[in-house]
């Protein structure tokens, strides 16, 4: 089994789901920083459709770099 550098993508989805649920229940607002998985993006999309007050962002390296690119550099 290949070891993941950044951790399993399910971890991000679980935290994003928790934060979105809290925002929905409290009618609060949440900003999700550094989104890096398709699962988290989908959760945010669904929450927005439900009217949850959420914003999100990703940095260029979260969009463009892969684990394979990092491994090639010897990290």
Structure characterization notes:
- 55% of the residues lie in helices and 11% in strands.
- A two-stranded parallel sheet has the order 1-2.
- It is elongated and about 45 Å long.
- The chain is mainly alpha-helical.
- Helix 1 packs parallel to helix 2 (38-49).
- The chain starts with 8 loop residues before the first helix and ends with a helix.
- The protein has helices spanning 9-26, 38-49, 60-64, 67-72, and strands at 29-32, 53-56.
Question: What is the structure about, briefly put?
Answer:
The chain has 75 residues and is mainly α. The protein has helices at residues 9-26, 38-49, 60-64, 67-72; strands at residues 29-32, 53-56. Strands 1-2 form a two-stranded parallel sheet.
Descriptors:
about 80 residues, mainly alpha, two-stranded parallel ribbon, elongated
What gyration radius follows from the Cα positions, in whole Å?
14 Å
Give helix and strand order, one letter per element, not per position. HEHEHH
Overall mean pLDDT? 87
Q: Assess the beta-strand content as a share of residues.
A: 5-15%
**Widest beta sheet: strand line-up:** 1-2
Uncertain runs with pLDDT below 50, 5 residues or more? none
Tally of individual helices: 4
Largest sheet, strands/sense/barrel: 2 strands, parallel
Question: Total strand count, please?
Answer: 2
- Alpha-beta content class: mainly alpha
User: Percent range for helical residues?
Assistant: 40-55%
Q: Tell me the span between the first and last alpha carbons.
A: 18 Å
Per the principal axes of the C-alpha atoms, what is the gross shape?
elongated
Oligomeric composition of the shown chains: single chain
